[in-house]
Design goal:
About 20% of the residues lie in helices and about 30% in strands. The protein is an alpha+beta fold and about 375 residues long. The chain contains eight helices and 20 strands. The chain folds into two domains: about 1-195 and about 340-370, FAD/NAD(P)-binding domain; about 200-340, Elongation Factor Tu (Ef-tu), domain 3, CATH 2.40.30.260. It has helices spanning about 15-25, 55-65, 70-75, 100-110, 180-185, 245-255, 280-285, 315-325; strands at about 1-10, 30-35, 50, 75-80, 90-95, 115-120, 125-130, 130-140, 145-150, 160-165, 165-170, 190-200, 200-205, 215, 240-245, 290-295, 305-310, 335, 340-345, 365. Strands 1, 2, 6, 7, 8, 9 and 20 form a seven-stranded mixed beta sheet that branches. Strands 14-15-16-17-13-18 form a six-stranded antiparallel beta sheet, with no helix packed on it.
């Protein structure tokens, strides 16, 4: 089977969605390839957009005609302007989003964008002729011709998740990794490396004692991400809650550091400077008696809460034992443990300022494939 498009975008995450809708809006017949079209814009880790050094990017995307700010405002369950105690230049917008609503809003954007088509499949090979991109092939054997290809594979290229010594292949929990592209790109002359990041466990709201925590409400004012006047925050606004680790928590984690893939040699990848794991915190900041944690909701109609500040690749039993020492979480019931994930990325010095690769004409890399934070 052969298909023909102007542009093919591989990956339906933050970068891929913006790339696909932008290309289609500008008149190119665009195909977005994603493993699961029911998870467009799936927020892999924390269901939040923005924050320090990132909220500004979302507003720049909005000013350029992108959709992330609009989708975030329409799915927001808490908006906060960070750093308001400092000067206005330091203010950083951040919004907690309803995970399901965020996907629904992005799906609506894609289905209403002229020239944008979706194919549910996995890209396994790029087609190159005389140093120029010609298209891609997929796992289902489909040959797709294209004048340009944009790879936005996120954490899926040879993705490997770590739950202590337990290793599971995947791009994120319960979703398969993507194989083949890295090896082909290396054969074409690209330099690649491995990156690691992590995510915390998810906790059942009904098992949390919020009375032992400090409530953190959002900003009930006019602030939002999008500059468009017709875009409003539409959902019920929800509170987050603050609690802290303690010496008992730290002692449990220290006793099991040799079981952490981050410290026993199981993981050799480099990690971004943002969002350090709880293991890294107790080692790097050994003098600190406590670390602040944020208990954040995943959605208006969900009992799922996110333990921001407790990313971990420890065995699940160790994670649960340590978390049960934290005030308000003594009886916590878990949906799933946290984990670390390793994945392939490509050195961004191999790109032009347009994000086109220097080696293959009309092949572009965007998002986490370049070693970014995801957006």
């Amino acid at each position: 089977m052969i298909l023909d498009y102007d542009i093919v975008v591989v990956g339906g995450g933050h970068a891929g969605l913006e790339a696909a809708t932008a290309a289609a809006t500008m008149g190119s017949r665009t195909l977005l390839i994603t493993m699961d079209m029911n998870k467009l814009g799936q927020m892999s880790c924390n269901p939040a957009i923005g924050g320090i050094a990132k909220g500004q990017i979302v507003r720049e995307i909005d000013a350029l005609g992108g959709h992330q700010g609009i989708v975030t405002d329409r799915s927001a369950i808490q908006f906060r302007m960070l750093n308001k105690s400092k000067g206005a230049a330091m203010w950083s917008p951040r919004s907690q989003a309803d995970r399901k609503r965020y996907i629904e809003e992005w799906t609506k954007v894609c289905t209403e964008t002229p020239n944008l088509f979706i194919w549910q499949d996995t890209a396994t090979e790029i087609l190159v002729e005389n140093g120029k991109i010609r298209g891609i092939k997929t796992q289902l054997g489909v040959h797709i011709n294209a004048r340009a290809v944009i790879l936005t594979n996120g954490t899926f290229l040879n993705g490997l998740m770590h739950f202590g010594q337990k290793k599971v292949g995947g791009g994120r929990i319960s979703e398969p990794a993507s194989f083949g592209l890295t090896e082909q790109l290396c054969n074409l002359g690209f330099k690649t490396d491995r990156m690691k990041t992590g995510t915390p466990c998810r906790i059942d709201k009904r098992s949390i004692d919020f009375n032992k925590m400090a409530e953190q409400k959002g900003d009930d004012d006019w602030h939002k991400f999008s500059y468009l006047p017709q875009v409003k925050r539409e959902l019920k606004q929800m509170s987050c809650y603050i609690t802290y680790t303690n010496e008992k928590t730290h002692n449990i984690l220290r006793q099991h550091l040799d079981e952490s893939p981050m410290y026993n040699g199981q993981i050799h990848s480099i990690g971004p400077r943002y969002c350090p794991s709880i293991e890294t915190k107790i080692v790097t900041f050994a003098d600190k008696p406590a670390h602040q944690l944020f208990i954040e909701p995943e959605g208006v109609d969900s009992n799922e809460y996110y333990l921001n500040g407790f990313s971990s690749s420890m065995p699940m039993e160790v994670q649960f034992e340590a978390i049960h020492t934290i005030e308000g979480l003594e009886n916590a019931v878990f949906y799933r443990p946290g984990y670390a994930i390793e994945y392939d990325f490509f050195d961004p010095t191999q790109l032009l300022h347009t994000l086109e690769t220097k080696i293959i004409e009309n092949l572009f890399f965007a998002g986490q494939i370049n070693g970014t934070t995801g957006y």
